[in-house]
Specification:
Elements: H1 8-25, E1 35-43, E2 48-52, H2 64-74, E3 80-89, E4 96-97, H3 102-115, E5 120-124, E6 131-135, H4 136-139
Parallel strand pairs: 3-5
Antiparallel strand pairs: 1-2, 1-3, 3-4, 5-6
Bound molecules: tetrahydrodeoxyuridine and zinc ion.
Length: 158
């Protein structure tokens, strides 16, 4: 797998990506948890796709990362390289970086497998308190993917 982080290209986009995630969080629909999540995905082509959590009374809502992935695919893009996620309760003026849950890690890994690019994810560094980038493969090692079921994704690449 190819690592295309960190590059000057990505760092130039980093602030825009973090801002996009913070901003879209405010559109979250979360009457049940009251916890607002915003996610922003940067793709190889330099486009940013955003998503927020959308809850429903059946308690089976959409996570912000899933929504951002869906926006990316609907936009004709399948090559995520960098992800920023922020979460906080309604009215929190200073939301925290929020690591993707296990389900979202799996869905993100689908597109790393497809594109062949490592996905970098902003996380809070517990030692320094600031943000750093980890790779999805570091936080989802030994993952289950298309190769395990013998599926060839090559015709689904864009
Ligand atoms: N949530 C996300 O949007 N992404 C995650 O990966 C973790 C959880 C949402 C789901 C629910 O609407 C709220 O946060 C509380 O769990
Ligand atoms: Zn999730």
């Amino acid at each position: 797998m190819q690592l295309i982080l960190p590059t000057e290209y990505d760092l130039a986009h980093a602030e825009a990506l973090l801002d996009a995630a913070r901003k879209v969080r405010l559109n979250a629909y979360e009457p049940y948890s009251k916890y607002q999540v915003g996610a922003a995905i940067l793709t190889v082509g330099g486009r940013i796709y955003v998503g927020c959590n959308v809850e429903s009374a059946d308690y089976d809502g959409t996570h912000a990362e899933e929504a951002a992935l869906a926006a990316m695919v609907a936009g004709g893009d399948r090559t995520p390289v960098l992800l920023a996620v922020f979460g906080g309760l309604e009215g929190d003026p200073d939301p925290s970086n929020a690591p993707p849950c296990g389900k979202c890690r799996q869905k993100l890994m689908e597109f790393s497998s497809l594109s062949g690019h490592e996905l970098g994810i902003f996380v809070t560094d517990p030692a320094r308190g600031g943000l750093r980038v980890v790779l999805l493969s570091e936080i989802l090692p030994w993952s289950f993917g298309p190769a395990n079921i013998g599926v060839d994704l090559s015709k689904y690449r864009r």
